[in-house]
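Issue 218. Parser rejects a valid record. Input:
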Amino acid sequence: MLYAILKPIVAMIGRVWLRVSAVGTERVPRDGPLLLASNHSSVLDPPLIGCVLPRELDYMAKSELFRIPGFGRLIRALNAHPVDRSGSDSAALRLALRLLGDGRAVLVFPEGTRGAEGRLGPAHAGAGMLAALSGAPVLPVYIQGSGRALPRGAVVPRPVRVTVRFGAPIRFARKRGRTRYQEVSDEIMAAIGRLKTEADRERPAAAADTRTDHTTPGRAPASRIH
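Output the parser choked on:
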């Protein structure tokens, strides 16, 4: 499978060029349905999260990306699935629920679109709907540095340290309702916010790293890509 072939290549590039590291990989369930919910500041987020995740990852991506000649076919081969962000995409919802029902790990971005590095936007109800309808455990994720490595409009990634931080899985009771979906999304976003707070607190501890990374000091990683 192309995913299995490319994952170690992406991991090697990430380790050498971006010094990608992961914190909390021991919290990631190794099997069974898993809904990963992450902040989003760069198009690099899905591959960088995927290359440190100790299991195969599916993720939802905006449908516009699949219209780019060649690129759309490539990301589809890498387990990307299109979602129409212009409205309620019931087909994408059904697909995500089916993937979770098959015991897959699915990555979503509760904010719905890319934001500025280090800033969390409000959550949309979609992530909460998936969590509430599927009953799958939700794994909060905070990725730090990707927005500086490849901000919106940039083409070539800059050599900025990137850290992917995994939180503890959260379970939500299966309950329908628009209000409930938004409540769950807000709780998920709050969990991502707590991971961000942890990451911000650890920045001063790695000030010595500025000798090689003048953009974003970060702590020595707890675990590396293999």
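Fixed in the parser; the record now loads. Residues 206-226 have pLDDT under 50 and may be disordered.
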